[in-house]
Amino acid sequence: MSLDKFKKFQKEKEDIVVTVKRIWGYTRVSSKEQYNNYSLNEQEQDLKLFAKKNNYELEQIVGGTYESASGDFSRKEFKRLIDEVRKSKRRPFAIAIKFISRFSRTGDNAIGIVQELVDKMGVHIVETSTGLTTENEFDRLEVYRKLLEAKKENLDRLEKTLPGMKLLLEAGNWLGKAPRGYTLRGKKVNDYSKMQEYQEITINKEGELLKQAWQWKLMGERDYVIKQKLENLGLKIPKQSISSIWRNPFYCGVIVNALLDEPKKGNWKPIVSESDFWKIQESFEKNKTNSKKEFIKSKVHEKRPLTGFLRCECGDLLTSYEVNKKKLHYYKCQKCKDASFNAITTIKSKSKGLNDLFEGLLSNYTLNHQFIEPFKLQLKKLFDTMNSEGIQEMRSLELKKVEVEKNLENLEMRNIQDLDFSPETYRTFKTKFKNDLELIDEQMRDCSQKVSNHKMFIDKSIEILQNTSKIWRDGDIESKIRIQNLVFPEGVSIRLKNREYLTKKVNQVFTLTSTITMDSEGVENEKTHQNSDGSFLVAGTGLEPVTFGL
């Protein structure tokens, strides 16, 4: 039986219309050096030539910069490429790369991305140097193999370089670019003018300004104020950068790196001492539980300076608002019913405003002229007690300095006497010892100032204590906030029923003022008593000074 009858079931071959396929290109290098040596131009020219030879339309080339391939979506240009493919209504036939390793070095992660491109979006990967394409199943397997090989190459490099990197760190050297405020010189720098045999990190002009910024931060200045002060001095730093500076141990001369088992001392002069660095970290820890307060403080109105500082007796911070029609200002607890307080005393107000009550509270810490000398005596005793630690620290630093000077002397002798002594080793240790001496000298200067500046600090304290309430009343919003936080570092609370202030902690200097005055009176104020929760109650105005809990 003839099979010709079955021809009617056979589909006729359609004429294939050859169309130009659209492709996108991707170029990348891993370092600035490669970026500068025309490697990207070479890749771009290769993509254009490949498209012309194979009748492809090269619509666009993404990338064109240096980005590490150790991560995929941490690379901005790579992420842009994939995002554009996903969002595009007219997706390309393929993404062309000169070498598969330029696409990614993450191995299995990269394979997952390729599978998504090919299987879900119909977009292929083409390696222009070899012609490999995921359109062909066997080629697709070869692309996967190359992606895994690229990851293996990375791991092999790390295995060879990690031990050397670790030794470099353990010797007190820095890996990578030096943070802002420092200039790095050594073998691995991009600027040829800064190349030399041994690593050297020095404080530059920006660093000198950042020294002052750290001191402002220690004094309690907020970041936006510091940012403005630095701009006035010619140094512009984004807010996020300032925040990261406070949290970087590099600035106190310490190396923290995942390659190290524990932090190490760096061979550079710190901008801030370790003790001051930790003071700032401690302040951050305290503020973690009260980040809302920091936001409110930045929005404080000059007529409502207690916003973000004053709490309701329930524990919540009072918010504040203005009645626009009447131009009246109020504090309010969002949690407690009817917990609303007028901020300013007016002719029609039924109760004294909280601002005036707070001024009265501060007047309890105003030092009368007759008590200046007793106060100076007590303050001197307080400083002597606080600085006994500083005196011990000074002695310890003096002994440490003698030891380093001896090491430096021995190094010089060995360099003269030992002909086999390596010049590089000599320079490395000499730099380290000199940096150590500079650090010790700076610490000794700081310690000396803390110990010797008693008289100046006492005189300044007297000036403030004689005018505490006046300074707060007449000062701008920044001055008011500083005084509030200086006297009551943990804030104060207000009792709704009788508008009495409560606090748990007062600055020791201001507590001393109250103690001297109360001792001179011989009796405690009858309207002041300690509550069952350990806090002390203070009437708003018109009363003698009282002692608060520390």
Helix and strand layout, with pairings?
Blueprint: E1 21-29, H1 32-36, H2 39-53, E2 56-66, H3 76-87, E3 94-97, H4 100-103, H5 108-120, E4 124-127, E5 132-133, H6 137-170, E6 182-185, E7 200-203, H7 205-218, H8 223-232, H9 239-246, E8 254-255, E9 264-265, H10 274-288, H11 291-297, E10 310-312, E11 319-323, E12 328-332, E13 340-342, H12 354-363, H13 372-386, H14 388-417, H15 423-452, H16 454-465, H17 468-474, H18 477-487, E14 492-494, E15 501-503, H19 508-521, E16 536-538
Parallel strand pairs: 1-2, 1-3, 3-4, 10-14
Antiparallel strand pairs: 4-5, 6-7, 8-9, 11-12, 12-13, 14-15, 15-16
Helix pairs in contact: 7-8, 12-17, 13-19, 14-15, 17-18
Structural class: alpha/beta
Strand content: 5-15%
Helix content: 40-55%
Instruction: Give the count of helical stretches.
Output: 19
Give a quick account of the main beta sheet: strands, pairing sense, barrel closure: 5 strands, mixed
Q: What is the averaged pLDDT score?
A: 81
Give, in spatial order, the strands making up the sheet with the most strands. Answer: 2-1-3-4-5
According to DSSP, the number of beta strands is 16
CA-CA gap between termini: 112 Å
Total domain units: 4
What is the CA-atom radius of gyration, in angstroms? 35 Å
List low-confidence stretches. 291-298, 523-550
* Shape annotation: flat
